[in-house]
Amino acid sequence: MPGAERLQDFLARHRVVVFDLDGVLVDSNELKTECIGQALSPFGAARVAEFLTEFRATFGRSRREHFAAFYRDYLRQPGGDAEFERFYERYAGAYAELLRDRYPKAPLCAHADLLVKELADGDLPLYVATGTLTEEARRVLEGHGLLAAFRDVLGGEHPKRARLEEVLARSATPASAAVLVGDSRQDLLAAHRVGLDFQLVTRYGFFGHDRVLTGALANGARWAVDLRPDGPVSGPVTAPAHAADQEASGEP
Asked: According to the model, what pLDDT value does residue 79 have?
């Protein structure tokens, strides 16, 4: 794409870069879908298949939010009570067990190690904000030799919006000077609500930029195929100021 800005150059214009993990740094989206489907399989194939459609559409939520949605919307049970806590302990525990062996073996996304190294060598503060639990995220990054490149890894014990706010507070950075690199609508929502720029990468995500970057909240967002440092960045999106956001998938 002649004249397009390079991904590395666009990111380096910011004071802080935050990466999502799954589908951005690690090729693990389908792995996680398979594991959560297996963990919930006692509830029946048809019900679980329906939930997995929502799981893909809301990928990027915290683990607790995904299980709460299944409990509330597919089992028709109210959330936030002792029964849900027992449900969460059992089935999220089964999910974690499945991931314990398989997740560390997930490969890096194409060019992830190269881009992270290039940015870190330029002394640009890098963070990870992910729906994956912190220790799981740290282990997979450590296994690929990337953990030391990040100032911190903030996992899904809290919603992504809260994690982004935490990054800004820790780094004393205004939201306008930071960018989130993500692969999902939930990532876009979190960035928009906190005020960060948003860079979508599409190669490993469940949906392309035409599905993710819609509505007024996508204004200014950019997209690229993957993390190749000299790969072209497309955008920014320019949606009409009056465009209504139809997102109804919950808190990222």
From this structure: 62
